[in-house]
Amino acid sequence: MAAPRVPAHDLIPRVAVVAIAAYAGAQVIAQVTSLKIGVVGGRAVDMGTFVYPITFTLRDVVHKVVGRSATRVLILTCAGVNLFLAAYLGWTASVESDPSWGLGAEYEAVLGPIWRIVLASLAAMVVSELIDTEVYHLFVTRVTDRHQWARVLTSNAVSIPIDNLIFAVGAFAPVAILGTDGLPWATVWSIFWVNLWVKGLVSVASVPLIYVTRDRGIDP
Question: How many separate domains does the chain show?
Fold first, then answer.
């Protein structure tokens, strides 16, 4: 006897698997590459800024195909993964290096976590991505389920400045937290505005991602 067929609506769309994997991967890539402060266009910017904004549109894609509740779980899971990453890097940096390797100090200097920055980054990510989820949901259910580019731009326009503000102030404000003294306010606001412009431009460039799949009829 042939095995019973699984209804199509019970299958997780393959595009959801790809979007979830891409979202989680982009989160981790941004976390690690943020350790590099580069100079782009004559302004200092952490290099994770060019990848991280893509996660907001990828979050919209996930929301579109698997719904709001599953998207919330994804956000919190990725936050846990990034927290584990920082803790594991901290532990591995503290382990005595084999003398024949010779790069123990460099590994510790580059990958050893600065906990104030890690926690500010995670708080910014969780708060802003959850807000993005609610704005996207309200747009689709209360405004229109057409004009997909508009739902992405609207949700990102709300969540990205919130993310940027929490991160810049939490990580760099001139207040001693977790052994870090912070930076002058002028520098903090410079970081805020530069990152906001970069994240905004990358976010706009990522809008076509929302069209990789059609709406699946799943309650958003």
Answer: 1
